[in-house]
């Protein structure tokens, strides 16, 4: 099955990260993409957490969109913060409590990136969809 899209908006609150993970789980089960659950929920958790931590913009929400295309599951988190784009960086040290989210996204996804939108940005990650396990 390909060519499906699911988009949901969440308030910028801590409980929304868990709600976003649950939405991904339910959607991927419905789309029969259960093999991608672990990676997709972790990527979603990181992107949604980044939206909460760093995206204090015009709106009080973020939008999670899942797109099933031939061979790819796209995970997108859009927010209204338009002044800085996220960058892959190394934590300052082993005790640094932040800076690992995009490292995880980079490691788990086939590719990822950021695109501007008006207002704000969309951070996206692609997971390959294959007939076998993704790893």
UniProtKB/TrEMBL annotation:
<keyword id="KW-0808">Transferase</keyword>
<dbReference type="InterPro" id="IPR003594">
    <property type="entry name" value="HATPase_dom"/>
</dbReference>
<keyword id="KW-0547">Nucleotide-binding</keyword>
<dbReference type="Pfam" id="PF13581">
    <property type="entry name" value="HATPase_c_2"/>
</dbReference>
<dbReference type="InterPro" id="IPR050267">
    <property type="entry name" value="Anti-sigma-factor_SerPK"/>
</dbReference>
<keyword id="KW-0723">Serine/threonine-protein kinase</keyword>
<dbReference type="InterPro" id="IPR036890">
    <property type="entry name" value="HATPase_C_sf"/>
</dbReference>
<keyword id="KW-0418">Kinase</keyword>
<feature type="domain" description="Histidine kinase/HSP90-like ATPase">
    <location>
        <begin position="14"/>
        <end position="125"/>
    </location>
</feature>
<keyword id="KW-0067">ATP-binding</keyword>
<dbReference type="GO" id="GO:0004674">
    <property type="term" value="F:protein serine/threonine kinase activity"/>
</dbReference>
<protein>
    <submittedName>
        <fullName>ATP-binding protein</fullName>
    </submittedName>
</protein>
<dbReference type="GO" id="GO:0005524">
    <property type="term" value="F:ATP binding"/>
</dbReference>
